[in-house]
Structures are given as structure tokens and as C-alpha cells.
């Protein structure tokens, strides 16, 4: 019997679980995939928005700047990469400078600090590669970049060490209400709980519609991206947006927190929630629109991968965070599209406050807010490297040459709380396989390490769980 059951282990579900672990509550998180951050969380812009874009009377407007302000402390406590690199919204037509004034006023209403409007020359002094066609920009110094999956792992591991249970490969098949509680039926048995929190992302409508006559419809909005090598990661230092026009919001150009360059996304509503294919049309659109912001030709010969992610949108065009009117103690945290990543910490506080009001739990006096991430060989000084190799010899064996990830880091990722079980699990915790060769050289070695550490055969190792096995047999074994 649980006090609270959270459906979904993306950034939202894991942030809520960590916030609830500050109280004496029996909490569990159900995730149908094999790991955290397996949905929208692993494929997005990784932008920490300042908060000027959302309407002030919306949940997005109320929660964006609040969430942004929490990032500095959270990054320290949970040891995930985060940088306030600032953001610029470029204007290409003097007649539209009034729209920047409107964004500035809106941002101030939302509580965004230090916003300022720059002229074109000031923008190019700050960002020399911005196009000469830029006549001005809104500058938000609190804008930032983050690693969404390392952040999610941080939330989850900290929640776990503070008592939250995680059940992976556990898919919700139905939810029933008895006299007092909910019975959450899964492929691994029934779970009884007082409160259900629906943080199932793209599938939150399916979960809602199991219990409520107030039907919810989530519309997947696909966004495609192109990622470039670190060699061109300094093309810009701020996150570069384009002022929205009648032709749309435009395409962003941004450094990543790990030093790459990212452009995108497209925004196309689709019907298949599992459609993560990239398209020639999408990539052409990204490149052409991104080039409007940058005078330097985009170095397409330095692109290392393209990818797509689906955002969970609804007709409401706002977050849905509420107890369902005809299902007491069933709380939807749905339609969490952009700026959902930025707002995750403040969403977690909002939902936690709702639970505390209902259950009136005592505080967890043994709550430990600190979580240490995996020690990164690439960030160490030579003295630190010598010391850790002496302590753990596996840190002296480079596995991923592109990102300088060692065998010691991979082993630590597997043995850590809620440790990695797949290639993608290793990737999101260590960055092994994210470099220019995209795991072309290190994948087989990682398979060997996973096989040894998990004590299973190499043929059982998967990329991301399910049927995503990598090996089918030995070469020439039938000869």
C-alpha cells in the first residue's frame, strides 16, 4: 500500500518524487520503460527558458521563472551540468521592435529579472556570428542550458536514496477505484495507493481516461534537431531565438552544456506518439531557418547526428496540473510541453504542496538533498586522474575516445543507485557514445562491460530495453 504512486519517470515524475521524498510518505514511481528519461525528456532543446514567452495568467507564465530560479541550487545539490549562458531573441525588422517591447513587459510580469533590449550593433558585439540583418534583440541573462537526462537521473537517484521506490518495465494497464483507494493494475501485478499522480507525458491522456469521464487528448508535436561536433560549439555563446512572426517561432541556435552546437526544432503535430523518425524535409527546414540568425555558413560537414522528440501538447496550450473533478485523489500533471523542462522544479513544488495539503505528512527529518554524480575523467586535472587511477585502475582505460569516458565511469554508472542496464543508460549517465563517431568504436566494449557487470550474455544486452537487442549471434557460427 502506497501513499502516492507516480506514473512516469521523466523529468516531471522524477522531480515530483524527489520533492515528495522530503516527507514521510510511502511513494513509488512506475515506468513502463527500462530507465528514467526514456520519453520526451531525452530528446528536447535542453533549454532553461528565462520565462518571458508565456502568458502571465497561464500556469506556464506562473511557473517558468520560478523553476528557472531554482536551477542554480539544484545543480549544486544534485550535481548535474547547468550553465546560465543567457538568451537572445533576434528581431530582423525595425517595425517589429515593438514586439520585443511586448516580450519585455510580459517577462517582467512573469518575474523575469534583468531583461534588456539591445540594438543590432550591441547584439553583434556580444555575438559576432549573428547576421547583419539583426536590428535588435531581447537579452535575458538568466536563460540557461542543461543536460535533461543527467538532471533526471539526479532527481531519481536522490529520491531513491531518500526512500522512493522505482518500478521499471512496469506498464499501467488499468486503474480502478475502490471505496478509499486506487488499484493500479500493471503488467507486473496490482498496486494499491491513496493518490495517483499522472505524469505519463505523451501517454497521460491514456492514464487519465482510465479513471475520468473528462476525457483528455494529448497531441504529439514532433521536433527535429541537428547536432554538431564540439569543434564548432563556440559558434554562439548565448541561446539564439528568433522573434515569432506570422510564419512561426523560427529555429533556435544554441551551444549545449557539453560544448556541442544544436539547431532546431521543427514543430509538426502528428498522430503516432512513437514516431521519432527524422526527415529530409525537416532537416532542410531547420538548416535554412537557423541560417537566418547566423551570418557564418552552418558547417554541415561537422554535423554528427540528427534526432527527433515528441512534445505532449493539448488544445488548452498550457500545463494541466489539477485534481480531476470526478476522480478524487487522482492528479493530472499533463500537457507539459515547453517550458516544461524549465518549470519541472516549480511544478514539483506545486504538486507536492497539493499532496501535503491532502495527507498532512510529517517532514522526513533524515532527508539528504545531496547526490553526487559519476566522476568524469575528462573534467579532472592530471593529478586527479593519477589519484583515481591508483584507487580504481579501470579509470585508466579509455572506452569512449570521443568523450574520453573510461571503463571506471561505465562501471560506476552500472553500480550506481538505479544503475544503467542498457547502452542508452550508459550514454545518458556518462556520455559514452555521444561524440562524433556516435558509438561506432565504443559500443562493443560497452556491451562487454554491461554483460560482465549484469552477469548476462552479450546477446541479452539492449540499446534501450525491450526488443532493441544488438547482437543476434556469432559471425560464421553456422559454417
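^ C-alpha cells above, recovered residues below v
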Amino acid at each position: 500500500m502506497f501513499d502516492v504512486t507516480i506514473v512516469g519517470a521523466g523529468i516531471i515524475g522524477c522531480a515530483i518524487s524527489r520533492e515528495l521524498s522530503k516527507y514521510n510518505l510511502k511513494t513509488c514511481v512506475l515506468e513502463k520503460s527500462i530507465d528514467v528519461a526514456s520519453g520526451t525528456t531525452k530528446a528536447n532543446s535542453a533549454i532553461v527558458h528565462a520565462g518571458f514567452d508565456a502568458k502571465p495568467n497561464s500556469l506556464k507564465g506562473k511557473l517558468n521563472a520560478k523553476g528557472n530560479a531554482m536551477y542554480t541550487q539544484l545543480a549544486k545539490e544534485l550535481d548535474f551540468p547547468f550553465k546560465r549562458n543567457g538568451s537572445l531573441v533576434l528581431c530582423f525588422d525595425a517595425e517589429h521592435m515593438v514586439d520585443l517591447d511586448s516580450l519585455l513587459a510580459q517577462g517582467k510580469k512573469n518575474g523575469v529579472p534583468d531583461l534588456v533590449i539591445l540594438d543590432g550593433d550591441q547584439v553583434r558585439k556580444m555575438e559576432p556570428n549573428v547576421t547583419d540583418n539583426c536590428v535588435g534583440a531581447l537579452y535575458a541573462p538568466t536563460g540557461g542550458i542543461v543536460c535533461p537526462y543527467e538532471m533526471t537521473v539526479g532527481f531519481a537517484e536522490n529520491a531513491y536514496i531518500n526512500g522512493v521506490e522505482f518500478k521499471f518495465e512496469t506498464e499501467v494497464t488499468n486503474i480502478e477505484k475502490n471505496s478509499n483507494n486506487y488499484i493500479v493494475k500493471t503488467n507486473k501485478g496490482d498496486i494499491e495507493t491513496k493518490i495517483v499522480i499522472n505524469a505519463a507525458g505523451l501517454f497521460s491522456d491514456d492514464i487519465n481516461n482510465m479513471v475520468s469521464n473528462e476525457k483528455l487528448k494529448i497531441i504529439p508535436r514532433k521536433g527535429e534537431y541537428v547536432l554538431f561536433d564540439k569543434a564548432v560549439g563556440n559558434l554562439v555563446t548565448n541561446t539564439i531565438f528568433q522573434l515569432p512572426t506570422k510564419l512561426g517561432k523560427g529555429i533556435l541556435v544554441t551551444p549545449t552544456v557539453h560544448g556541442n552546437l544544436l539547431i532546431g526544432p521543427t514543430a509538426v503535430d502528428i498522430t503516432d506518439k512513437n514516431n521519432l523518425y527524422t526527415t529530409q524535409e525537416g532537416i532542410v527546414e531547420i538548416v535554412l531557418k537557423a541560417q537566418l540568425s547566423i551570418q557564418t555558413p552552418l558547417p554541415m560537414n561537422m554535423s554528427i547526428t540528427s534526432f527527433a522528440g515528441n512534445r505532449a501538447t493539448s488544445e488548452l496550450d498550457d500545463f494541466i496540473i489539477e485534481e480531476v473533478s470526478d476522480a478524487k485523489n487522482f492528479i493530472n500533471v499533463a500537457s507539459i510541453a515547453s517550458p516544461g523542462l524549465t518549470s519541472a522544479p516549480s511544478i514539483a513544488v506545486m504538486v507536492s504542496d497539493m499532496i501535503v495539503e491532502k495527507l498532512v505528512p510529517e517532514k522526513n527529518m533524515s532527508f539528504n538533498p545531496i547526490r553526487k554524480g559519476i566522476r568524469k575523467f575528462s573534467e579532472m586535472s592530471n593529478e586527479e586522474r593519477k589519484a583515481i587511477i591508483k584507487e580504481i585502475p579501470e579509470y585508466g582505460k579509455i572506452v569512449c575516445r570521443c568523450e574520453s569516458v573510461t571503463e571506471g565511469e561505465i562501471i560506476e554508472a552500472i553500480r550506481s543507485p538505479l544503475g544503467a542496464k542498457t547502452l542508452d543508460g550508459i550514454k545518458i549517465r556518462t556520455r559514452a557514445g555521444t561524440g562524433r563517431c556516435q558509438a561506432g568504436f565504443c559500443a562493443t566494449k560497452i556491451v562487454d562491460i554491461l554483460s560482465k557487470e549484469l552477469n548476462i550474455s552479450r546477446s541479452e544486452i539492449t540499446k534501450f530495453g525491450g526488443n532493441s537487442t544488438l547482437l543476434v549471434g556469432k559471425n560464421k557460427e553456422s559454417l
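The chain has three domains: 2-41+148-218+316-359, 87-141+219-308, 377-460.
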